[in-house]
Amino acid sequence: MSGLVHALRLHRRHPLFALVAATLLALAIGSATAVFSLVRAVLLRELPFADPDRLVWMYNARTERDRAPISIADLEDYRRESRALAGVAPFTNWTANLTGAGAAERIEGTRVGGDFFALLGARAAIGRTLDDGDAQAASRVVVLTHGLWTRRFGGDPAIVGSTIILNGAAYLVVGVLSPDFLFPFRDAEVAVPLSLRDDPRRADRGANFLRVVARLNANTTIAQAKSDLDAIAHRLQRQYPADDARKTGVSLYPLHAEIVSDYRQILWTLLGAVAVLIAVGCGNLGNLLLLRALARSSEIGVRVSLGASRGAIVRQLALEAAVLVVAGTALGLVVAQAAIAAWQTHAPTGFPRLDLVEVDGFVVAFAVVVCVAVVAICGILPAALAVRRLSDTVRGGGRTSSVSRHDGRVRRAFVVVQLAGTAVLLVCMTLVARALVNLERVDPGFTPQHAVAMQLSLPPARYATPNSIDDLYEKLQLALRGIGGVRVAGAVSLMPLSGLLSAIDLSFPGRPAPPPTEVPQAHFRIASAGYFSAAGIAVLDGREFDDRDNRRGAPAAIVSRAFAERHWPGERAVGQAVQISLGPRPTTLEIVGVVGDVKQFGVDGTATADLYIALAQIPPSQVAPVAARMYWIVRTEGPPSGLVEPIRAAVHAVDPDVAASSVRPLDEILAASLGGRRASVRLLEVFGQAAIVLVVLGVYCAAAFAANGRRHEMAVRSAFGAQNRDLVTLVVGSETMPMLGGIALGLAIAWPVARTLGPLLFGVSAADPSTYAAVALVLTTVGVLASWVPAMRATRVDPAELLRS
Fold first, then answer.
1. Secondary structure element (H or E) that encloses residue 249, with its range
2. Residue 629: helix, strand or coil by DSSP?
3. For the whole prediction, is pTM greater than 0.85?
4. Where are the domains of the chain?
């Protein structure tokens, strides 16, 4: 207890040192704890299911991609024949208009097979989940997520047993899921039964629309299950070549990894960055504590002379350091809590499991482990080194030269650690930042400025025919044109950057049919007249859709440049014909225009071969998908933000049961597509800047101590005619070599570390020489300036006065 009291008194006598040290630690440990809380919630925390490590997402592996949906008939064969699966549960995405309880709201949902919740081992917080009886009877029952229950229904438990209106039909609410439940479709907020028994697609192996969660048998690995399922897939491929020719096998991925895959790389990168920041902070604090211990040589010498053991002195110095570290850790937990609250407010849209990000016992334990490690590195190690050398000096009769050399090596080793860690962090930060700049400069294929985008969800009972879609389109066009400042508006089945896949097989009249495994495909969109003008998509040849493209006119299509170059290289695509099947008979379309390539799956994606057909010629088979997701883009004369509410009001005036969601400027949607990447880069920049501050402080303190220790030497040199610049060069030069060594070590480590960033380095090489040169120049400049200032101060002392002393 007396040692603790002495440590507290020491820090009270030197409050500035204690405050600076604790604050630096709080920022480093707080940052690490906050990022670890994100990693724990998203990547380390198990899904709230029974034996979640046995759950996998099951896909068709096809010649063109390895994540494709599965048909009912194929799934039944896998279920019946596989020896590796304990069960399978199909599901599909689904959207619904929630009406009858305030303004119409578009709800993302999912249709699930009867054994979906049982296979996951999930339970309801109140009420029950869906079961096989609901699916077999095709009952109109629904379960709600906890988030929707609290947001829309105020957390009223009486909602269970009551009905809500979804897509114009009454559904009985049978349960509310637990707060931590997570659907494979992260945005889903409701689940309704998926009945496959009477589905008209049941016998069509080419109707691949099911997503599937599977549970592996105990002691069965993913590789063993894949081998088992691949054998079945190969048999189906041979038995049904018309429908299964391009199905090369089955892909299995851990369910947890699939749900959070888009944030896995970013979060691990951020955790690595804060680990480096802590290492830099440890080097800084260790150096400060070592220098302070050496500065107390007289006090320690007296203690040694009076018989104090090395162990007792080390324990006291370590206790003094531990007080600082514990204070910094406690303050760091406060910083982490504030950072988490800020992240929950400003996190990128769609960040998974955000409500589970918290400072819980596991996160506190992480902070405690970090605290113990920092005490060992920054407290015990410097204390042991300082006491050993100072006690040897006292017992050796004051031989200090070797001690000084050793002390110099130790404190410079701390400087090397700081600079190496900072170099690694700055290289990664710069590479990722340059990649973000490259992404922001990519042409998305449309013009986001002066445009508003929105998604409509139409009540399916009232919008079930092509004529009903045409009627809504005409009425809404008329309403939008009546808004001042609106130039043109158009509709499309899938928005650019939506990431949603809609592919269709192609054939070309007059060309021989390719083998079944080589049938070409296109990304399929349905667009209205005016859509390309509204979206700012360039028409490169021909024309866009207009009044000629109606039900009485010849079927027309517009293709992207990538489509045209792939299928008619060196020829003009306009006037050519392509054949697709969207109904009982194939339809031959005439190409009337070629438009620019559009980024459909992210700005870092490659150009896709896109095929557009006219909304006014929509086939009956496509009415339901368009009614579920109908996107509009409205181009404005000026800034679009002031037209968001008038546009929403126009939709409500045309049909109050049509839910309009995501009504916002198109440039915000483009910016949001990079939201996660941008947030991670900003955090890396903050960590990099913090590391530079720590390096400046560490180099300054080390150089100041070195210059102060050489004041007598500099006085002698000055008395013999040395100029101030010579003395400054002497001090700075002695500190420069370890700095250069640390920078070189950091750059060497940075290269293999940067290679792990992979997809984050869009358009940038992990070995980009300009980045490494820039980091080396910045750190060298910062280090030289940080050591030059104390060297200059040391030369301002009068040599005669110093020698007399």
1. strand 247-254
2. coil
3. no
4. 1-46+262-399, 65-245, 463-656
